[in-house]
Each structure stands twice: as structure tokens, then as C-alpha cells.
């Protein structure tokens, strides 16, 4: 027994001597040499630089040996500079992805495939608000988003004794009553090309509309949505009833919000991201509702405004994924929601803002929540759909059956 104790003491003394010698010679044994790395993080949000700096700094403190260098690139040139750097082998380890450029980024083959297990460790409390990917691969992490909604002027609604619509028919009826009262019932902005910017409105209809025979509706594939008539004949009917006049419409969503704040329209389409803007500039009271649908549909559309990816050939893909995962912790999801006035990307959060919390609870209670439909469309499909939607909302479509058939045919080719 004494021999064993003596041996153990000798071993401990020897170990202490080795450590002391290492320190004197300037050599320190590292706990985890593989964890020593610096990640480069690109984003364009010049107005929220301190927010990202804080997250990066806190992550570095919690993960010894990890440093994060942040590079700000102006939004106007962000995509161009990202592709240039990628072509030169200098892709950032972690980076923001513009939602409208998601398809382009994916097609570059430069993004690391992500899975649910990568982003949310087993046993943690977080759970994606959007469909749980499971083993399916995704190429972008949505960290904060918004909900497509219809804003309405409460004063105008009260003057016309209207109530918030519960069905698409109610919505169309409200529009008809408002037109009889010489009100502009509903408006959407125009794009720079002069087309109606109707995607948010359409996304709501597609997610909340009818599915054939009450069966589960297809929400991810736009071609299938058209094939199954999922909400699309309702969309045509609504468009015909509204009879939007382009002469009364304005270019740009910001101008639409300003006109709405001046009581020029009874309703406009937008997203919950606009709530803060209207709170600041609108003197009369306003409310919002998600475009109504049938009881049996799993109505839930979640528009990803802040998306992030990791480089496939980055210095440390493993650490990049861990940093992305950090965005999904409850603490940071609350921080994203407060900073940007947006909906968190995981379930079980209680946003501070009352309006945001109301919108979040609307989709948080749904079993399935889907990305806004056009984010999964190619640019060619989006261009085609924008032109066709413009024709519909301009009231220029008379043969709805033939029009839809031709539209589907073009999308399939």
C-alpha cells in the first residue's frame, strides 16, 4: 500500500515539474489545439454593427480559442463581392445570405449543407419554428423573420362598420363595401419595373387557401400549388373584385406605407417587419390580420429576413456550424427579435414587443410552418410569376381557366 501511495506522489511531483519546465521555456500545453481558430463573418447590416459585435464577442468568451472577425460589406455590392471572394478562394466562414439571392448562393455549390442535428443539439430546448429538417439538408439558417399580413386602418373600418375578415369571402366583401364608400379598399406597391409587388399577398393566399377535397395541401412546390388549385382560384376571384387601379399605386413599399399612414388606403399588404415603421409614422390607429383561409389548412407562412450560411471549404466548418447554432439559442433569438422587430426562428420564445409576440404566437401554434413560397423559386420562375400576377391584379385576365393552364405550361417547360 505504501509503495502505491509513494508511486502516486512521485508521479504527481514529476507532472508538476514538467508543467513548470514548460512554462519557463515559454511552451504552454493547450487544452484543445483543434479549437484554436479565427472565423470570418460577413454581413451587410451597417445599422446593427454593435449587435453583431456583441454576439461575436460573447461567443468568443464562451468558446476559448475562437476568434471572430466581422467584415461589413454594403448591401448594394454584397452579393457581387461575395462571389468575387469565393472565386478567389476567400469565402467567409460564416455569412449573411440575402433572401432574394438564396437560389443563386445555393447554385454556387459553395455552401455547406446543414442539418437539424448540426444546428440544434440533442436534448436542447430549442426547436425550429419552420419544418424540422431532420436528416434533410439545408443550405441556409433562418435566424429571424416576418409574417405576411394585411394592415387595416381601424378608423376607416369603424366608419364603415366593418369587422376583421375571417374568410377570403369576408375580405372581398369588405373591399366591395369600402369601394361603395369611395374608399380605396386595398393597395399594393409597384416594383421599379411597374409591376404589382404582390408576392407577400400571394404567399398568404397560397398558404391559407383551399386544398382539393380538404386534403393536405402542397405548399413547397409552386407548380404543384398551381396544379392542385390550392387557393389560386380564390386569388383570381379576389383580384377581380379588388380591380386595383395602377394610377393610384405608388412605386416602392416604403411609399405604400407612407400613403397608408396618411389614410389614403383602407388596407395594404406587408409583413410584420413594417409594424415598427407604422408605429412611428401613422397618427391614426391600425391593426393587422393574416390573410384568412379555411379551418382545415395548416396556415403558416414564415418569411426569412435574416439568413446565414457556412462555407463548404472554410477553415473550420465544424466551428462555423457551432457559431450558427449559437444564433438559435433562446437568449440570442430574443436578441434578434428585439433588435430587428422580427419573429424568432425557434419555438418557445416570448418576444418583448406585444405586436411581434401576437404574430409569433399565430404561427408558433401551428404544427407546420412554411417558408414564403417565392424563396424556393428560381429567378426565371419569379420573373414569369411577377408578370402574370401583375396581369391578374390589373384585372386584365378574363379567361381564368385558360390563363392558369398556360401559366402552368410555361412553368413546366
Task: Describe the structure in your own words.
It contains 17 helices and eleven strands. The chain is α/β, with parallel strands linked by helices. The strands form two sheets. Strands 1, 2, 3, 4, 9, 10 and 11 form a seven-stranded mixed β-sheet that branches. Strands 6-7-5-8 form a four-stranded mixed β-sheet. Helix 7 (168-180) runs parallel beside helix 10. The longest helix has 23 residues, at 2-24.
Radius of gyration: 26 Å
* Beta fraction: 5-15%
User: How many DSSP H or I helices?
Assistant: 17
Name the shape in a single word: globular
Spell out the key features of this protein.
413 residues; alpha/beta; 7-stranded mixed β-sheet; 44% helix; globular
Topology, element by element:
Elements: H1 2-24, E1 37-43, H2 49-62, E2 66-72, H3 75-87, E3 94-97, H4 102-107, H5 116-119, E4 141-146, E5 148-153, H6 154-159, H7 168-180, E6 186-187, H8 199-208, H9 222-227, H10 232-242, H11 253-261, E7 267-271, H12 275-281, E8 286-289, E9 301-310, H13 317-326, H14 330-340, E10 343-344, H15 354-364, E11 370-371, H16 379-393, H17 400-412
Parallel strand pairs: 1-2, 1-3, 6-7, 9-11
Antiparallel strand pairs: 3-9, 4-9, 4-10, 5-7, 5-8
Helix pairs in contact: 7-10
